[in-house]
């Protein structure tokens, strides 16, 4: 039996840092990834896709947002999609699941599992799905408990699907909400337990995995953090699953910390580092830079040109916290081909910078803006 395991699509998710264009692109990618999952199922010869909750970001999405994933799944009639509620889209009386049924929005090949009971999903392999069902955002009880005693036919291939926190997984302590026993697969005789809620791939044991979100949704340091979908093959009830990870996400999110810039070479190295995240197509890179350092007048101007203009135009999103400060001295004032009034103002600001303190910090920023503004005016007049 070969199937797809995915979760945490978070359709309709918002990103507070993103401008309107970036937000629209990120939300579109979260919808489009459903097609990528369907294409992966066809490519791998998997007839079932199991989605372990949080299909939607909110319990009350707009109507178009509600229908979008359903229409993407409808495009793959040869694939059976099996969905369970998560903590973001729990099966509440007036939630998304009730609306989908009321608006007759569920295609024939999509199955909404809102009852905790075994359901046969593949006759050829005698495969039965045991869904855990969240009826509200948080619960203190383990909704996978019932799987231990749920009866299925002899030699059935039992697959569990749940959304929550494995007890003792992250910090060795019990989960506060939506707990799942660490050894549930063993207790319930499951061939595989597919989990949702954790947004990066994580294998708990040989039969228990978090798939992670198929489209990354947060900045991470290093290479982890989602964008993948799992293909799982189980040859029988007692056979160990074979799990393979496949990239389905469009955007690559990276956080680069402790970047210190002191000269033009550092600026060029930073640009190369960000472009190197995906050299063939930097337009899918989402980068968050934490920047500090001291730059001279020319290098500060170069920083604005290379990073804030050229690199920002090359990538999908460039989020910058911090900034290099201006390292200006008396000799730099002579470079201002300006009126005496401008030079006097710059000199007074420089003296305030040299005195330090809170006033000096404000003066440094003002002096930096003055130099950059003058360079812009000088360039426009040339």
UniProtKB/TrEMBL annotation:
Pfam families in UniProt: Metallophos
Gene Ontology terms, MF aspect: exonuclease activity
CDD domains from the UniProt entry: MPP_Mre11_N
UniProtKB keywords: Exonuclease, Hydrolase, Nuclease
Entry annotated with the keyword Iron-sulfur: no
Keyword Transport assigned: no
PANTHER family in the cross-refs: COMPONENT OF ATP-DEPENDENT DSDNA EXONUCLEASE, NUCLEASE SBCCD SUBUNIT D
Annotated Calcineurin-like phosphoesterase domain residues: 1-95
Protein name: DNA repair exonuclease
